[in-house]
Amino acid sequence: MTTLSIKNLGVKVGEQQILHGVNLNVSSGQVHAVMGPNGSGKSTLANVIMGKPGYQVTSGSITLDAQDLLSAPTWVRAQAGLFLAMQYPTEVPGVSLRETLELALQARGIENIDTGSRLVEEAGRIGLSTQLLDRAVNVDLSGGEKKRNETAQLAVLNPQIAVLDELDSGLDIDALRACAERIEQLTQAGLGVLCITHYHRLLDYLPADQVHILIDGHIVESGGPELAQELESDGYARFLPSDGESDGVEVAIGGLGASNQAPRPDADDPFSDPLA
Amino acid sequence: MTANQRGPFKPANGAELVGSSAFQKRRTAAEEKAREAGLPSFEEELWRYTPIADLDLSKYRLEAPGGAVFESGLTQGLDEHAAAVIHIVNGQLVSLSVTDEALSVHTDGVEFEDLIGSVMQTGIDVFSDYNLAYCSAPIVIHVAPNAVIKNPVLIRQHTTTDSLVWFPRVLVYAGENSEATIIEHQSSPDIEALVCPVNELKINQAARLRYLTVQEHGPRLWQIATQTAEIDRDAHLAVTQIALGGGYARARVDTKMIGQGSSGDISAVYFGRADTQYDFRTFQQHQAPHTNSNLLFKGVVDDRSRAIYTGLIRIEPDAADVNAYQTNRTLKLSDEAWAESVPNLEIENNDVRCSHASAVGPVDEDQRFYLESRGVPRGTAEALVVRGFFGEVLDKISVAGVSAAVNSRIGQLLALDGQDNRS
């Protein structure tokens, strides 16, 4: 049993405080969904867990069982058993996917698996053309292909805890089902998942044990899967702060829901749907 | 010329320089021109950012002592399948073998000496003038018209003698509709010497020539190289510089599209370590319509090394329907390393498509983060990104073995320099 434990996590980007004391525990076999409007800090949370440069942790801790992750470089976090399926997977020209995974596994002391055939096997399960595996990492892949590629890598690397940052965006319904069901299978085998999403549809195939609502960097409510159902029908209105209670941020509650929020602190999320 | 009158260099006894009396006259004229001109100053645009003021010619001895045949470095193993192998050590021809009948290689200077200086009629700087004056074993490679030379011609120019100056010279005459690949390998151990190569490439109508220079010099040797190519109607030239060493290593590469429909691919891979200074000057000259040129120079500077790239695309008034591109990218792997990129365009025709792009910067943080997030240690991730960065150029070198050898050498250099587990 492994537990990713986030305690009182505060994060700044530049001068702006994005996360305010977030608490979250994800254990082996569990699926936790974090939902929230654009700009609420979801991607920041995912990136900070993995140690992406550019974020300043102002309070709290992130641990994987007894291991402190905040002081560890990204690759050590990965080797400890963490995986991040990125919202916008980076293209790395001239670098082979197979070699990348081989080196990653080697560094973890795993040398007795045939990475090439494992990749082919996993790609086949989620309908990712195996020809794409010969390309440089993510180069010339469509948005949906990149997400399937992330899923295939997740399965080959076989982490303890996976953070999925909007895995569903860019995936058509068939691909979404294939990816989500594959990850669901992995949770049966013990994978813990922190699933960041805007939409309920991913959770149809990857049912969440717990749903957390993230608004303005605060987890304002946690509950069972019924919470996601409620969001699907009623939106975020109930969770948004009323005037005067927010952190100095004017929030309009209306037909567009959270999209009228003034600041867009998720600087690395320039393409997200403003109406979502 | 007698030995003890040899220019500004330290007097030494050397073999008589090859060539007929007419050629000796040209040598003397070039020598006088160079001596009158004197060394360039770093205040001149073409020598900006260079340590040329540090060059003291009187430190170097002009002779051609020769040496033993050698085989080493990145071209190891290519001999067996080469169309010709030419070894020149310390300015003297030490071995020559030609196995392809469509190829003739001349090194005595007389028979084909009129070709020497036919592409670079007058020296383009003082060093190329000195080269004509003092080249001790000029090579003329003649490819018969319509011949396709399948295997590469291998020229190894090795320097082992301290304080030596010598002037390698190669002229390639690619006959009409011929095809050939030349690999020039420059190498030296850790010695203080000056090597000033000149290459003249004449690519006749519809011929296809690949010319690859692999430079693996020791860390104190100075190289000042010039290459001029004339590409005739519908002919194609691909030139590549692989630069992996030297104290100060300059390569000036002039590519002239003189016949309509001609094209040139000009590329380079450079890797600077310790105190190496690279200096690339390129000229893409379009003198005829329907011509294309594409330049891609990619390098890294690590430790305290420096790299300067300056390039000019010039489109002459008569050159319509031209595509000319120029890209230079340098990765800076250490804070003390330095690189500068200065692209230029001079366009005198409206019907052209030109672009130039240059960038100097660190390893892409997002790319490194992505690989690290899979569990690849940081040093390895950085090495992968850098090697991948070179892939775009190395993929174009379709010379069997060389591209793989360079790729693996770069991998070695990165592993040597990057502490694998730094965080």
Order of helices and strands of chain B: HEEEEHEEEEEEEEEEEEEEEEEEHHH
Cα gyration radius of chain A (Å): 18 Å
Overall 3D form of chain A: globular
Strand order, sheet with most strands of chain A:
6-7-8-3-9-10
Write the CATH fold name of the domain at 3-92 and 158-260 in chain A: Rossmann fold
- Assembly status: heterodimer
Spans of chain B with pLDDT under 50 lasting ≥5 residues? 416-423
Instruction: Estimate nothing, just give the exact number of structural domains of chain B.
Output: 2
Give average pLDDT of chain B, whole number: 91
What's the CATH class label of the domain at 3-92 and 158-260 in chain A?
A: Alpha Beta
Number of helices of chain B: 5
Percent in helix of chain B: 10-25%
Q: Biggest interface, which chains? A: A-B, 33 and 24 residues
Low-confidence stretches of chain A: 244-270, 272-276
Major sheet attributes of chain A: 6 strands, mixed
Number of strands of chain B: 22
Number of helices of chain A: 8
